[in-house]
Amino acid sequence: MSKELGFSQQLVAKHLEAMEGSGFVSSLMEESPHGPKRKEYLLNKSISLTIDFAPEPVPGQGVLLRLPSSESAQESNDMFRSMSDIVQRPEESGKMRPLGSLISEIDKRLGNIEDERAVLLHVRHLAMKEVANAISGMPITWDEKKAL
């Protein structure tokens, strides 16, 4: 894991311990085929964390994943139904291809959302620059500029 992330083993272990203490992951000791026992970590909660770096404040937040409450609810419900239909199939071998297709569709939709988000953040950045330029020429106090 540390190799994949490009961080030291100590740093990864420290963060995994903190995540375990917060209840985001749990661990168990596993036999290793090539040496001593090792700790295996399992996710307990789904979380999505988005961090944006920009010269002006950007609304970013970590949110626990929840069921949709907007117009995407129908599409999401369709995906839940597809997942349920696949899981209820009696034969294990008949699940792999449909699950792979479902995962591919989800990955595609997530990629589209990320692409749209990148464009929206860029447009927001340009708009914030225009606001900053407009405010800079106004004869108002620093606190009034911050409020604007």
Write out key terms for the chains shown.
4 strands; two-stranded antiparallel sheet; alpha+beta; 5 helices; flat; 148 residues
Helicity level = 40-55%
H/I helix tally: 5
Structural class: alpha+beta
Strand order of the largest sheet: 1-2
What is the overall shape? flat
Using the CA coordinates, give the radius of gyration. Answer: 23 Å
Average pLDDT confidence is 80
State the major sheet: 2 strands, antiparallel
Helix-strand topology string: HHEEEEHHH
- Strand residues, percent: 15-25%
Structure in a nutshell:
With 148 residues, the chain is of the alpha+beta class. It has 5 helices and 4 strands, in the order ααββββααα. The strands form 2 sheets. The chain has a two-stranded antiparallel ribbon with strand order 1-2.
